[in-house]
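Hi there,

I know you've been waiting on this one. I reran it after we fixed the sequence typo, so this is the corrected version. Both the input and the resulting structure follow.
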Amino acid sequence: MAKKKISIKDIARELGISITTVSFILNGKAKEKRISDEMTKKVQNYIKEVGYTPSYLAQSLRLGKSKVIVFMIEDISNQFFASIARMIEERAYKNGYKIIYCSTENDTEKAKELINTFKIRNVDGFIITPTPGLEPTIQELLEEDLALVLFDRWVPSINCSYVIVENEKSAFEATLHLIQNGCKKIAFLTVDSDQMQMKDRLQGYQKAVAENNLSSSVFKIKFHNIDEKEAYLKIIEFFRNNQGFDGVFFATNYLAFEGLQALDNLGIKVPEEVKVVSFDDHYFFNLYKPKISAIEQPLEIIAEKLMEAILHHLDSNESKHSFKKFILPNKLNIRESSSN
């Protein structure tokens, strides 16, 4: 037979004191309520003896705080998101908070369901990489005065806190780097998405080629999981049907993985025949032969600013409508794939 779970009521009855007294001691309010050290120690010793564990849901309802932050991103297995998750976990713990991770897989309905589930569980705040069409749900969170920070991408129509990077400027500089290294026909391979970070990267590329009187060539690929083969086959087809490129800019690292494999299978040499740059640096790019030039996002600073922004909303009711907006610079790591 399963052992009966001990309640506050059981503790109070056993020790001959009120339920309120037990509750104050459990919630760290003994001194505030002038409960003696002797009584406090008596309750704490009994709790250890019987192995009592509090109901965190009930506790959060009493205190109005769960000390839990939801980190909702596109794919927790992605190295970029996983690295940020690890860094904010450390910072959250130091500030007395725990992190719950979840992946939306860029699915808006899934994102909505997850948000509703966590709201019921009384979490304190959300750090979210928004999916397409999530604007009404984000607006609802703000109207309900929940702590909210957008991450990696922003929504122009909504006034809220966010932490993003200089996507347009970095894409412009990377494209200009290819041009300065002799590229005259540069392909831009990106995700077919209305998300602002992808639109900004595309705009940066287009601005650079236009300012240098070159033609743009953009190939958009439907969002997909890394293990899906369809995107790789489409990239192979694109390179076969569009020969003569001397430069390729991949808008994300997972497109670069597929694109480099496609170039290799087609016998197109990097950098002799085509120079390559990718957004989102990855340790794999230093292992690849030749080493791949890539735009590195400032992971440590992103994590710091995410926690600064969410704690700004969590620590004071007055900060609910005072927003933190960070746009951080990236670094272009120039390696063998784009050099002469």
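Quick highlight: The chain has a mean pLDDT of 89.

Best,
R. S.
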